[in-house]
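quick one: zinc ion bound model?
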Amino acid sequence: MRLTIIGCSGSFPGPDSPASSYLLEAEGFRLLLDLGSGSLGVLQRHVGLYDIDAVCLSHLHADHCLDLCAYYVARIFHPDGPRPRIPVYAPGGAASRMAQAYGLEESPGMVEAFEFCTLTPGSQRIGPFQVATAHVNHPVETFGFRLEHAGRSIAYSADTGESAALLELAGGADLLLCKTSFLEAPGLPSDLHLTARQAAQHAARAGVGRLMLTHLVPWNDQARTLEEARGSSFTGPISLAASGYSLEPG
Ligand SMILES: [Zn+2]
Ligand SMILES: [Zn+2]
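yep, here:
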């Protein structure tokens, strides 16, 4: 299984990266995890526009889903005709929210391009991946993920504050791709975002092999983000995500 960081900028696109989007590939199957603002452009540096087999949206904040509107245009209005429908796994209400975002009638909305499948907590097969999902701790319905293939595993926090569900999803994973938005400061809001130190604490408690910090907000000092994570109890490798970076976990 190969992971390529398409976008890792937190909350809005930055000068060096679109907002959240991650490409997972195995056995020729290509799954996009989130499709945040700006990500459809950079995606095309790594894979053909029509080579995506499925999309998963962790939640319906714009920095994780809005480029599905752009992808709808690309799939429907190609000069050679519409491309075949692909599944979009997303929280309930995604079909109407995305239709509204693009200014479409709720029905038929985007159904010509996408088959919307409502995510629920549990485990399912998507292509060659075994995908576990659970609710994490964010103001709107948000799913964290664990993807497994051929004995390797990647956990993705999506957007969350401190979360027992994330610990469970990430248990023993080869890689935890974990969001961090805040630098340590007094009076941070809870149940919204993790600091880098909290992300690293989750990595330590879940016993993951490696931690990659993502959802990096452009106004933060990323050297300090890394420093705060490295000051925690997690002893494995810690790195910052970067658009274009690609790895095979384990
Ligand atoms: Zn976000
Ligand atoms: Zn969010």
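The mean pLDDT is 96.
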